Amino acid sequence: MKELTAVLVDDMPIALEMLENDIVNNHPEIKITGKAKSVVEAAKLLRKNQPDILFLDIMLGDGTGFDILEIFPDLRSKIIFVTASDAFAIKAFKFAAIDYILKPYSDEDLAISIEKAQSQIQPDKQQLNVLQEAVTAPNNKPSKISLHTSEKIIVVNIDDIIRCKSDNNYTTFHFKDKSKILVSKTLKHYADMLKEVNFLRVHQSHLVNTKYIKEFIKSDGGYLILTDNSNVPVSVRKRNEVLEVLNSY
Q1: Are residues 190 and 111 located together in one domain of the fold?
Q2: How confident is the model at residue 180 (pLDDT cuts 50, 70, 90)?
Q3: Residue 62 phi/psi, 5° resolution?
Q4: pLDDT tens figures, 3-26
Q5: pTM
Q6: Which terminus of the chain, N or C, has fewer Cβ atoms within 10 Å?
């Protein structure tokens, strides 16, 4: 097996030592060439040599992991983000569609992340911007989301999404310019993410952006007419919730 080099960046000495021990004991194919506890220390290491894999904590004492990425915009290392058990951070990674290790992590989590890092394409600048925006301003509602298609990752404005429709384990996003994007994640995944930005799951198969609701028709079991003139059924179970949202306007 080809030997890989790695640099570890974490501002907590205990976390840094644990990660080092886990790699040394369980991943002999990885040679640790440097450790850093700050942006400054990491920058010094990376100027000398860029490793195959960079284990990067997000929040550091003198800045963030994003500061390191801005210093090295052409970084060739595969990045494995490491973050503490923080609801805001987890949300940020989901919106950016970027993988991460959540501390405390298991041996299996670490092994999977290393395997993915070797095979996956790096997150692009737009994805990193989505992540940075969500992490550094956790009280602000996200304005963008990264969507995985079978061919690429597309960053879109959340406000441009009119509705989402379930198709088994896939979800189709419908946009105000009438374009569509099919992604390989369930509707539940996005319903949980987008509920805080005014999306409402009105049916087992339908999630709508409430700003695009035009009318609620009570006959025929109940359905919504959206501003793109599409009809979306409302389940009996969701009927009262839909009425509450519409009456709040």
Answers
A1: no
A2: very high
A3: -110, 20
A4: 889 999 999 999 999 999 999 999
A5: 0.70
A6: N
Residues 41 and 91 in one domain: yes
Given a contact cutoff of 8 angstroms between Cβ atoms, the answer to whether 161 and 191 are in contact is: no
Beta strands in the chain (DSSP E): 4-9, 30-36, 53-57, 59-60, 63-64, 78-83, 100-102, 144-148, 153-157, 161-167, 170-175, 180-183, 199-203, 206-209, 213-217, 223-226, 231-233
User: Alpha-carbon distance 183 to 166, whole Å?
Assistant: 10
Same-domain status, 161 and 57:
no
User: What one-letter code names the amino acid at 135?
Assistant: V
Q: For residue 66, is it within any domain?
A: yes
Last residue of a domain, one of 93, 112, 136: 136
Q: In this predicted model, what pLDDT tens digit does every residue of 89-117 receive, in sequence order?
A: 777 777 777 878 888 888 898 998 888 88
Q: Strand 4-9 vs strand 30-36: parallel, antiparallel, or unpaired?
A: parallel
